[in-house]
Design brief:
Helix content of chain A: 25-40%
Number of domains of chain A: 2
Number of helices of chain A: 7
CATH class of the largest domain in chain A: Alpha Beta
CATH architecture of the largest domain in chain A: 3-Layer(aba) Sandwich
Largest interface: A-B, 24 and 24 residues
Number of strands of chain A: 13
CATH topology of the largest domain in chain A: Alpha/beta knot
Oligomer: homodimer
Structural class of chain A: alpha/beta
């Protein structure tokens, strides 16, 4: 039987005892019905996985004794995706859940010319990422950055291999054919109305390669997920 | 400007005039505000794409005159997925939408030992597939079959290349490494509690190769979506 894993972002090496926050305590004690003496794992979201035993099964502040720590290596190469958030919140929330499950290190909400959503509900989205990390048995929480302007993103990440996925009828290669294994990678995914021709040119001038994600026309959140799958396959 | 495409399943070569059903008429005339004289495309879901002109912009029974037909070749090789439907309807609906967008020819609701959902809302799911087909500019509607028992599915598809994705700690290869291009393919995706060891053995005895879909533990609907992306990349 696999041990349950809970999220403990404040946990660090100097602690011998840790108190879960109220939501996690409730989930651990009231929902999953753990009790004093049960062994549970804690993940700090930065690769640390701690073995612990419940010493106080309080449903609002469950306390555990830490008995061991394993530090897992960070996923390599680093995979980043900058994606225009959709107007429809549930579509981008699905994307975040799936991207975190499949595996990605950084998600950047991309503010391009046709992006319809520039503000994000950071706390809600953070919770989705934490659930997906725990669900998929990972130890690194993807980093959700602040929304960034297209021109800023295009000028960053100088040492990565860089791609821009778009639907304009230009010549493009499939991401799967052009991506090289073992290199840090960033891909840009546009909004429902696509990037503008000027944006595609700006990215290409900055060294981004235009790529296709398959034969069909994909919605933004689908394109994002397909890109995450392809990057993981090639990485 | 691209012409809008509407679904017309009853359309056939002998017709010169076609009347859209009430939902499609409403969408075409009331929502998209098309009117008499506008050119629109119709897709029959079987590869036929018809060029038409609206001759009666009635919002309940919009009538069009057919002026031409293009028959597009069926996607090859054929990609099939048999997947245990999740208890949570929205998760499997999300999968159907994404699978149809990315491209798959047949979806079989798989009734395995631990499947929690054996009945499906065929009409609702059919509508999701139609929307996704139109949205992604495709002309073939994926076939959603009736739910089928695991043992029956395992005995079918004798000439395909056949895979079963599972989470048991057995030796497995990545689907991307083992799948051969150009061959008809079927993959089985298990329920939340996975296939039983007996089911995995039964499938392997019938010639299914066990495969992995990546490094992380995926939910059923995520595994299904990842499999569809990988099959399309390799096909």
């Amino acid at each position: 039987m696999e041990l349950p894993v809970f999220y403990a972002p404040e946990l660090n090496d100097s602690m011998t005892v840790y108190t879960m926050n109220e939501d996690t305590s409730k989930y651990c004690i009231q929902v999953l019905r753990h009790e004093k003496g049960d062994q549970v794992l804690l993940a700090d979201g930065r690769g640390g996985r701690y073995t612990t035993v419940i010493i106080d099964d309080n449903r609002k502040k469950c306390q555990v004794q830490i008995s061991g720590k394993e530090q897992l290596p960070a996923p390599e190469p680093a995979l980043r995706i900058a994606i225009a958030f959709t107007k429809n919140a549930s579509r981008i929330e699905w994307f975040l859940e799936k991207a975190a499950e499949i595996g990605v290190q950084t998600i950047i909400p991309l503010v391009s010319h046709r992006t319809e959503k520039e503000k994000i509900k950071a706390e809600r989205l953070q919770n989705i990422l934490v659930s997906a990390m725990l669900q998929s048995k990972q130890c690194y929480l993807p980093v959700l950055e602040e929304p960034q302007a297209f021109s800023k993103v295009v000028q960053s990440f100088g040492e990565e291999q860089r791609f821009i996925a778009h639907c304009l009828p230009d010549q493009k290669q499939d991401l799967g054919d052009v991506m090289e294994a073992g290199r840090n990678t960033i891909i840009l995914i546009g909004p429902e109305g696509d990037f503008t021709p000027e944006e595609v040119k700006q990215a290409m001038d900055a060294g981004f390669k235009p790529v296709s994600l398959g034969k069909t026309r994909l919605r933004t959140e689908t394109a994002g997920m397909v890109a995450v799958v392809m990057m993981n396959m090639k990485a």
